[in-house]
Every structure is written in structure tokens, then in C-alpha cells.
Amino acid sequence: MARELNKTTEIERSIIKKYRKGIWNAFIGGVKEYELIKENDKIAVCISGGKDSMLLAKCMQQLCKHSEVPFSLEFIVMDPGYADKNRKLIEKNLKTLGITAEIFTSDIFDVAYKSEGGSPCYLCARMRRGALYAKAKELGCNKIALGHHFDDVIETLLMSMMYSSEIKTMLPKLHSTNFAGMELIRPLYKVKEREATIIFDFQYQ
Fold first, then answer.
1. What do you get for the CA distance between the two ends of the chain, in Å?
2. Rounded to 5 degrees, what are φ and ψ at 161?
3. Mean of pLDDT values over 99-103
């Protein structure tokens, strides 16, 4: 137990100190510039199990502890049909990070891949988003936070230009059209993927 606590503390210090410029300052800069968090917000931090959402969760946890603006968090993990070993790895990594999350299951993988027509990946993404909004609303949250970073934003822009002949990309925040009063935010908007990879490798090497 002491070893796990020491590892958690080491990770927290590395984000704030060792990787301060690339991660913490960029994270705080995005939150402030785009006004992503307001007083008394209750935010559902959505964790997929990948490095980006894990980093987001830890940054949000640290900000909640030290911010002068009062807000609260719920950490949620949707299991859309993961293999048992993958779910156990997510649980193990959450424990290492010192994060308590609510894990809820769904049959999204089965539904998406059994559907006829269209892209199962696109359908899966839409269904996952809807399930996360619904869970967040159930928990009394007014926002969901996703782990998209700077590289995701640029990649989406380039794909839009190449395949749709239009300039369109992810926004740092947007209001839900299907869930009244709910908003989506992307606090890692200014964090580059290589920084997230560095801290992820540090955590689990």
C-alpha cells in the first residue's frame, strides 16, 4: 500500500514539476483561456483507459485540489465490452494513479458491430458519447471532460480539409444538443500528444 501511495505521489509531482511546461502549464493555460471551468461546476471526467484520458483525470484531480475556483468531479469509466484483461488493467492503473472511478457497463461494442450500414467506429463513438452524457447527468454533473489533446485537434482539421473540403475541427467546449444544460470540455486542448506519452511511459514503465 505504501508503495502505491509513493508511486501516486511521484506521478503527481512529475506532472506539476518535471513536466510542468509541457503538461501542467499547457493544461492550465487551456482551462483559463477557454474558460472551461466555472464556479460550482460538477464535471464528469471520462476515462477510456488510454494515456490521454488517464492524464486528463490526474490533471483534473490536482486542479480540483488546488484551484481557487470551487468545483467538483466525478470520474467515470464506461466499459462498452472490453476484454476482462483490459478492464483489469484499467482498474490497476486507476489504483496506481490514486483515482476512484465509477465503472459502468454497456453493450455498445455489440450493437455497433452488429449494425448494418455506416461505419461501426462512427456509430460506436456517437453511442459512447451519448452514454457518457447520460451517466454524467445521472450523477448530477453539468459538464463532461474528454481527453482530446492538441494533436487530435490538428488531425481532425487536416482530415476535414482533405476528405470534406472544409475547415472544421474539435472545439475546446461545446453545448450538447441532446442533453439540455450539459456541456463538453477538452481541458488538454493545448497539451501535445508527445507530452502525454512521456508521462504515461513514466507512470507504467
1. 19
2. -70, -40
3. 96
Radius of gyration of the chain from its Cα atoms, rounded to whole angstroms: 17
By the 10 Å C-beta count (0-12 exposed, 13-18 middle, 19+ buried), 87 is classed as middle
Measuring CA to CA, how many Å separate 101 from each of 56, 76, 152, 188, 196? 13, 5, 25, 19, 20
Question: pLDDT by residue (tens digit) across 21-65?
Answer: 999 999 999 999 999 999 999 999 999 988 999 999 999 999 999
Which is more confidently placed, 197 or 93? Answer: 93
* Distance (Å, whole) CA 1 – CA 124: 37
Mark residue 181 as left, alpha or beta (left: phi above 0; alpha: psi -120 to 50; beta: remaining).
left
**How many degrees, rounded to 5, is the angle at CA 101 between CA 71 and CA 64?**
25
